[in-house]
Design a protein that fits this description.
The chain is an alpha/beta fold. The protein is 41% helix and 15% strand. Helix 9 (223-235) runs parallel beside helix 11.
């Protein structure tokens, strides 16, 4: 009799585990790196409250490719391969053939969360229709930013929207800003050491990585400021490395690039996996309101984030060691500021 009870308990446990694994969710996130990283608290919230077997992300692989194995995201898929553009058509003109590839995109998911549409939009209606061609699924559309009169962090705003639309307890939809968003691997660190050695960095010294760019020029602290603090740190025998992304390589003129090379060593054209490796070997990071700054903060690196026109109450990076410095003057991107330079140097004093 005892043996039968044990077998029954085992079968029940296996059934419960199988039911959990079947309950999966997918998030449609078309944004850039910072947007993807600020979605991670929502992923964690969903897993904890819904007891999901996994959460996948459909997005731009250049940005979401680093998420599996380093974060709570289980899998990714390219947004370009998913044919989601078809869902923007007027619902009366939308139709699907039998075995349509679009149906199979959502066939494995019980929950579908979309950052591509507002509630009750054409996209949402077509998405609901598509998902329910194969099975019953819950579809939740999430607005990209809070109302202008509500200075709530956008990551918590995402969680709260999901909780309201799914009748989950609002008190659980609260942000822990000190959480690590990403965990670096030994492979990341090995990759970072190799990159530093190739760049001529003395890995025995303290290292500060500076990313002087952002997606919008108005969000970039004037380059003279970065040059000044870099020279000050180098005078203290601290290694400084300028990290340049595609936007900076394209935007900066030849003279500005020469100034950077004269102030410290530079690296450019790195993949995001290489950037993670580089940051995992640094002692501190300085950057604007950018995706790379969110990445540095998210791995737990000591980070100073510079904000000009954007509101840090809404968009500040998340992580256990983040300092935000905001300069609301019109000169943030226009000229050097000795006062803000001092704040930066004091914040990253060793």
């Amino acid at each position: 009799m005892q043996a039968n009870d044990d077998i029954l308990s085992l079968l029940e446990a296996q059934g419960a585990q199988l039911a959990k694994e079947i309950q999966r969710a997918v998030i449609l996130q078309p944004g850039a790196l910072g947007d993807c990283l600020l979605t991670l608290p929502l992923v964690k919230f969903m897993k904890e409250t819904l007891d999901l077997g996994g959460v996948d992300v459909i997005g731009h692989t250049d940005y979401v490719g680093i998420l599996p194995e380093r974060t709570c995201v289980d899998g990714i898929r390219s947004i370009d391969s998913a044919q989601l553009h078809r869902l923007f058509i007027e619902p009366t003109k939308f139709d699907l053939a039998d075995r349509d590839p679009l149906i199979h995109v959502f066939a494995d998911y019980s929950w579908i969360i979309s950052f591509l549409s507002e509630p009750n939009s054409d996209f949402e209606q077509n998405l609901i229709f598509t998902a329910n061609c194969s099975h019953s699924a819950e579809v939740v559309s999430v607005a990209l930013k809070p109302p202008t009169d509500r200075r709530q962090h956008v990551a918590e705003f995402y969680m709260e929207q999901f909780a309201r639309q799914t009748a989950l307890p609002l008190e659980q939809a609260r942000l822990d800003e000190k959480d690590l968003l990403l965990k670096v691997t030994e492979g990341d660190r090995d990759r970072g050491v190799d990159l530093l050695e190739q760049a001529g960095i003395d890995v025995s010294k303290r290292l500060i990585v500076i990313h002087p760019g952002s997606g919008a020029p108005r969000k970039c602290w004037h380059l003279d400021n970065f040059l000044s603090v870099a020279k000050e740190w180098r005078a203290q025998d601290i290694e400084v490395l300028f990290l340049l992304g595609p936007a900076e390589v394209e935007r900066l003129g030849s003279a500005e690039k020469m100034y950077l090379v004269g102030a410290a060593k530079c690296v450019a054209h790195l993949s995001l996996a290489q950037v993670v490796g580089l940051l995992s070997c640094a002692d501190a990071f300085l950057g604007n309101d950018s995706g790379v700054t969110h990445l540095a903060a998210g791995i737990g690196l000591r980070t100073v984030a510079l904000f000009g026109p954007t509101d840090p109450a809404v968009y500040r990076p998340l992580g256990p060691a983040v300092t935000v410095i905001q300069d609301t003057t019109s000169g943030f991107a226009e000229w050097a500021s000795l006062g803000v330079q001092k704040l930066v140097l004091d914040s990253l004093g060793f």
